[in-house]
Amino acid sequence: MTAIKVEHLHKTFRIPHQKRTTIFETLTGAFKPPTYETFHALTDINFIVEEGEALGIIGENGSGKSTLLKIIANILRPSAGSVTALKKLTPFLELGVGFQSDLTASENIKIYATIMGMQKKEINDKMDDILKFAGLENFRDTKLKNFSSGMQVRLAFSTAIQTDPEILLMDEVLAVGDMEFQQKCLDVLNEYRKKGITIVFVSHDLGAVRRFCDKVLLLNKGKQVAIGDPTEVIDKYVYAKVETSSSKNDEPESGENKVQNDQHGLTSHQITEKIAEIVDVKFYDKFDHANTNFNSLDPMKVRIFYNSKESIEDPVFGIALYSERGKHLFGTNTFLKNYPINSISGNGYIDLLIEKVPLQTGKFLMTVDLVQSKNYVPLDHKDKQYSFSIIPTGYEEGVLGLSCTWELSSERAA
Ligand SMILES: Nc1ncnc2c1ncn2[C@@H]1O[C@H](COP(=O)(O)OP(=O)(O)OP(=O)(O)O)[C@@H](O)[C@H]1O
């Protein structure tokens, strides 16, 4: 059964061209009618959320996610089109609206829970649970003005989850609190899911969206780019940032980042006359597009473009991988991989194929080397000049993304 139906939804905002801030501007401007620009925040959005489904909404900043959620929640009116919600909506959007800074935590819980539709007895019965969930048992009688913003959101979220939603709308709630609190929120959401509650969930945390949602909607500049299977849609998002990115690492090498980077201790400046040169390095994603954003454990191809003025016999290409802070993570070359190259001359490229990028979230830097191995003449050395990022879309933690599986046996192997 359908829980939410969004049809041909449009939202435009009228933005005034000039602001009248001084008395002079107000007086002189009184004779000129104000002019407006129409901004299309959402254009022709269409989707259905089935009962019990969890829909994730993702997209860049300003793509229209919150506007869409507010329209579904009835906080904003659409400019055209319609939203039909066939169940009771509980929005967790602006958590803590109605909080009073001069009142204590328990007094605020009473007010907020009442706003969220709970009865007095129910609130009193659940008071301890709410404070415990928020980790604020010892702050029951502390005035809210002495709480950090994180504590306030924890209090609001803990109160809000005590309501009995049929459709839950959530905007970035998981962005607040520490890892432990975020995990507690996810546990609650999982409980809701088990109970068959429909959830619409806006988040920048692609890992949480992938873990949690049945379906994902991708917005870009107010347009619906894709809706469907989380992995496919998240891939579209991660690998769509193609044109805007460059693999050239422009950040100056400084302090901590500066490491003695290869076994020969070379720097690019030491190679004065270049008879052969690395002219560029590009990273290719699983769709064979040049990209600098990758999912952990996805395939990657590193393409090293060279130009050789003369014929170079027996060349060796090598790479070294570093964390953003300059920690050496890995190095290999064509000699170590037993890939002899007879000679190179003119323009060309060589590919390093990585089946599954074994890294988690972060930016990584690459050094590329070209040497003539016969007498080990360094030809070119590009020191941490190329970079790519692993976008946090995975499930696991840490620096490494190991490709591994678990296997349980009921008996100990002999
Ligand atoms: N009341 C408003 N008046 C004018 N423009 C608005 C208004 N509300 C939102 N916008 C604009 O609409 C666009 C979409 O905003 P929205 O907050 O929905 O994006 P978002 O995807 O949720 O962004 P973020 O990830 O940063 O929260 C933005 O360009 C924003 O500036």
TrEMBL record:
Pfam families: ABC_tran (PF00005), Wzt_C (PF14524). Keywords: ATP-binding, Nucleotide-binding, Transport. GO terms for molecular function: ABC-type transporter activity; ATP binding; ATP hydrolysis activity. One of its GO terms (cellular component) is membrane. Residues 248-261 have a biased composition (Basic and acidic residues). Residues 4-246 form the ABC transporter domain. InterPro entries: AAA+_ATPase, ABC_transporter-like_ATP-bd, ABC_transporter-like_CS, ABC_transpr_TagH-like, Bact_Polysacc_Export_ATP-bd, P-loop_NTPase, Wzt_C. PROSITE patterns: ABC_TRANSPORTER_1, ABC_TRANSPORTER_2. The keyword Methyltransferase does not apply. Residues 245-267 are annotated as: Disordered. It comes from the Archaea. Belongs to the ABC transporter superfamily. This is ABC transporter. The lineage of its organism: Archaea, Methanobacteriati, Methanobacteriota, Stenosarchaea group, Methanomicrobia.
